[in-house]
């Protein structure tokens, strides 16, 4: 459905809003474009969307208005008091008493002698009657409320007569039933034929309208959610869509009408508990019911004056409320919808009638009081949608209230602020998850107003600054002797006093220190500009001095206003004053030095990035075997320290931490880049293959020997990788470790040298050195340790799973275990260990070798438990595995010249604990596995054993570990057990 604004209404609709309807006008409205929901003329759909959702049905505004009028007339015949429909025969009626079957309130004459209670409650002014009003315009005597509603809703007399005639016919056929127990469009469809309309086209349009309403109310927006398995909605849509193309026979005996009635009635009479409800749900789903109710509420506005609420609003609302039972509206829902109507009308009429805003604000206050009582999901969603829209619209102005309000209309600001805060409070109470930080009502109001003040002051300051800059550019011939920041300081003072005089009086209702927050914001804004100004100078000049003097005077004025405003606050204004960072000359000088520091740091960062791109990590570059770029970065840091202590300033101790932090960051960046791309354990360890089972006795050792490619073809160079890029080879990784170790050692030297220079400063004593230095190069030191750890691990797993993969992963125990043992792997591993020992610094050598040992143990276990279908083990192979492990451990022990025995034992504990499983008989293994699974997963007696997940934390008692030993066990019992319980394949 199209959503258009009042401005987009066609000329016919504009004329009908100013005069009474005539017979001819209705025919024109039948072809009117969809116009609900109405949007304000000065806002686009994106800026001011309708808050309650789209109808998704092609119904025009006039069609929805006619539907709303039908519901209203029907509700007044069968009011909420429970009165059933009563038939009045033609002999009991006359042409002048067509309303006698309606409720007394609908037939009551409009007098409006007393002031409207509704207007009074909403704070709206009463107005004098004019000659065009509905009451004075009636020339036949007193006007009834029903006639007033007909005119206000722009319903023609012909349509009104037809609607009343329809309800007489409905009443004749539905004696004793209330309207809310019927599906009104169904009843109306059966009351009229083509002959009841001026022409067949109008009848077809009328029929299509009622069919579309059935689709909207029962299928698209039902009161109760539809079951996806329920075919009735699709059947109903099929009939409706067919009738939209070709009009259907709606006669009493029409088969298609009976099917339509049965489907529609069954859908409308659903309930949550499955019982038969007293109310048919066909027009009470959101947003259909809101659209219809909104149309009814629009009748409260004068058709000749869009900004005026009629004096008869009390009587109009009285009969409108009779539709509540049909549309599922209650007092809270009514207040929500009426708030929207008033607010929307205020905005859509160019915000000229402030009474509408005051009324919407007062009504929203009632909603705020009742918000906690909202239980219905649709009501809750409607409320949230409305409040989000109102809050968004209000905050757009409140966040820049200097642009929207001034001395003469500040009362509008107060109402808008009240409305925005009411909306925020309701949202906080109604949707606490979305507003976790706003837990208390006072916090909601305080923090919101605080935000408005700061945002608006920031905008006002920015506008004043831009005005000065623009003025200076346009008057170059009349150069001012004062810098812009000096003039801006005076203008900011004027802005602060103007804020206190005009706006703070309103804002203080919700924010006790509104003036203080405003001047603190201005103080911060000017401080930001001052800081930028100072960052552009390298020395104190006359202009800079003028700016500093003006800034000092401004600061004194602002601080004085803040202190005066916050003197009665809880902390006496301490937090506010603390927020106002002082404009001290010493601070300016310090900022200039900080600028120098930033320049040196940025230059060092660029140098680091440039040199790292050229670094080749050559182990023969120097005798210490670390990178030349590492030496250079340390030399640059040392030179920066020397230059810093030569600066002619008295605040070296105060600024030293900032310098150290910057240099620390540069050095940390160097370290991180040095280890970037070197990999880790996960980079080199192969993906764990899927589980398979062995074919008993199928070793095919001779065939596998022939199949295996010669190791010499797959062997990689120890000094590089196969692709020619040796920047990440084992020797180069060792150089990286050496470089990080060297940097870590030099950091201690730098710290001692800095302490010596600080001692020469007469302002610093030994007991203050720790406070001045702070934590020194904390980030770099930690990065060095972490980098060495990561590189050591990368070397270890690269050696085992990449450099030696041809003799380890691709060879060890592939095929026949006895012919693919560990000796080739040990030979090449020993060569790699010799390269590492010869390259890496002796202070970190043990750490790296230990990582290699751990990686070899992990890899050995990975081969045994996750080696893929090319590996299988007989019970007799266990002794070979034990012997190979001993050979591997002996390599690292190296007759006592290698790693300590206790260290080797520590890292081989897991591996040695699992090897006994390879000695264990298959039947015992199966029994252990079943017990482990039952202990861990407690499978039911009727189901097979569950597949234990692979955790990677191997253990002789862990189900996955035992199962993997069984998977690689080459005998019939293991194969049969695995096939029976898990049906693992024999190969991938």
Automatic annotation (TrEMBL):
Where does the record place the region Disordered? 17-38, 81-103, 118-141
Q: According to its UniProt record, what is one Pfam family this protein matches? A: TPR_PATROL1
Task: Please list the residue ranges annotated as the MHD2 domain.
Answer: 819-929
Bias type Low complexity, positions: 89-103
- Could you tell me where the Basic and acidic residues compositional bias lies? 20-35
Q: Where is the MHD1 domain?
A: 545-688
Bias regions of kind Basic residues — which residues?
118-128
Where is this chain compositionally biased, Polar residues type? 132-141
- Protein name, please? Uncharacterized protein LOC104215125 isoform X1
